[in-house]
What we know:
Radius of gyration: 18 Å
Strand order of the largest sheet: 1-5-4-2-3
Largest sheet: 5 strands, parallel
Structural class: alpha/beta
Number of helices: 10
Oligomer: single chain
Amino acid sequence: xxxxxxxxxxxxxxxxxxxxxxxxxxxxxxxxxxxxxxxxxxxxxxxxxxxxxxxxxxxxxxxxxxxxxxxxxxxxxxxxxxxxxxxxxxxxxxxxxxxxxxxxxxxxxxxxxxxxxxxxxxxxxxxxxxxxxxxxxxxxxxxxxxxxxxxxxxxxxxxxxxxxxxxxxxxxxxxxxxxxxxxxxxxxxxxxxxxxxxxxxxxxxxxxxxxxxxxxxxxxxxxxxxxxxxxxxxxxxxxxxxxxxxxxxxxxxxxxxxxxxxxxxxxxxxxxxxxxx
Length: 277
């Protein structure tokens, strides 16, 4: 299974014994939409509710931190997933939240995971079948995995401000990145490049071709032969950039999990204003 699958592929595969489809929709706190209610009203047939908003380590001092290995195993077991399952993630969110779920799965070594290109919006636009209610699940025993070194801490980013061994790429919009008046942001991590995450998508909500994605990063001044750390406001859309780089074939990509929520709230961290250079 490829990392990005089409609606047609998924429609043909529905009902396969090893296939698990997960609704990974999550909205920003100021969005009035209720993702859980929307799932219950209409979802891809057989899809299970991931509840991405609660798939975090609430005990961590890092805002919205990725779940622990124990939490990961517990959630996948609750959803009836085994290490042999093929998991397809989708969302119906402006922030393309399936990418965050994909990042968490990959962080814990789960290779058989993909994102539905175009998400639920494309599925609906094509008039494909929908289902309401909750999908019955038989829980499984999922083993506690080993976490891979795919995230960066505030201390890591502070050290990198001096060393610049890794390129930081910010997924927020240009106004917040620049710290423009009225944006609610004090700027960005010094030296960061800016690739607003919507740039990675075509008009129909599907991911752009790998060569187009590579060109977008190159135009932003990102050297694809060097390591990258993605960042955003809360660690959500940073995962979109990480997935886009994955499509390009880039492997040396990490994510700053605390992102601007952590960095911007600390008066001692350096901030830079102005447009990307």
